[in-house]
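Pasting as-is:
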Amino acid sequence: LANASGAALDEIVLLASANSSVVSSIAAAAEAQSATSEEISQTFEEINRIVGETSEGIIQSSAALQDLSQMAQELRTAMEKLRQ
């Protein structure tokens, strides 16, 4: 009976060790996944910032083009008056 108990305890220790190793692997994988998720989040924040800057640049370019169009029209009008 003592030998059987000893063998059972040895098996329990082996299984506990294997479970500990699996738990450690799961914890390491979860930590890596968390780090990757943080990197993805930071990347999305950077993309959002760039999109915001691009949108702002497009708005400014549009306003500048409108101003330029207005100036071109004024120049055309002035040139027509000079030709008369």
